[in-house]
Amino acid sequence: MTTGIVGEYEGSPTSSARRRILVAGTIGTAIEWYDFFIYGLIAPLVFDQLFFPKFDQLTATIAVFATFAVGFLARPLGGLVFGHFGDRLGRKSALLCTLVMMGLATMAIGLLPTYERAGAIATTALVVLRFIQGFAIGGESTAAILMALESSLGDKRGFSAAVIQAAGPVGVVLASFAALAHLLANAAKFTPPGGTTTVSVTGDGEGSVVLTVADTGCGIEPALLPRLFQPFTQGDRTLDRRTGGLGIGLALVKHLVELHGGEVRACSSGPDQGAEFAVRLPLDADGGG
Fold it and tell me: Can you tell me the distance from the alpha carbon of 22 to that of 26, in angstroms, rounded to the nearest whole number?
């Protein structure tokens, strides 16, 4: 009977154990790539204002993407280090360590003070945390693939490695779906008990699909609608959507939709009249029929 590479495993793992290892590695890889790329979606919107305010717009944008690149530069080092310690201490321990590192680094980025409050310390901390994220994802990729290979049967090793690799793009897709998730969460948050939230998907007859999220919640002030998708300028920061306080969530929605050649609009008849958000996306690359 053909067995897998035993490595740290004693003998050949059972079929159920192999499945658990493969599923764990796949989920871990998807989560890591989600955390890694959500930064790339948010950073161009606001990080130039938060961490590089003394630069002009172009230079600040370049600086933001330079911090994104730092994560990629750290990946090979993470792979080498966690590959070494995975050999000595076990793949499972290495994989768990990378997941914790990525999660803590992502949380810390969200808690960072701005340049206005902490000066260069904030910018330096951002670069360091991006390095940690890249270091972690480099180690996770190594640990997850090797763990799957070492536990697989000889004729299943290629498939197992391919499944782990495919989980990376799944994480990127999930990050892109943050737009839809935010619209749904926003509608639910501002709809009182007994209200309704509806989601519909239709074609517009012009080669595009239209996703509509509507609620019967507290509505939006008409004067706020033109500024609704601008980060930090929606209005007073309160828990009441009628006076703003929506953070950068809707700006992220607009950014993601426009990256795919689409557009998003919002409408409301006013306070206590509910709101509707419509996302229009072309079905092909050039936006044609």
Answer: 6
Residue type for position 260: H
| pLDDT per 10-residue tile (average), the chain, 289 residues | 44 74 84 79 75 81 85 90 86 85 89 88 92 90 80 80 85 75 73 83 83 84 78 50 53 76 86 85 61
Q: Are 33 and 172 in contact (CB under 8 A)?
A: yes
Fold of 15-175: Growth Hormone; Chain: A; (1.20.1250)
Sorted by where each begins, the domain ranges of the chain are 15-175, 180-282
Q: What are phi and psi of 100, to 5 degrees?
A: -65, -45
Model-level pTM greater than 0.70?
no
Q: Domain spanning 180-282: which CATH class is it, in words?
A: alpha beta
How far is the C-alpha of 103 from the C-alpha of 239, rounded, in Å? 27
Chain centroid to CA 284: 24
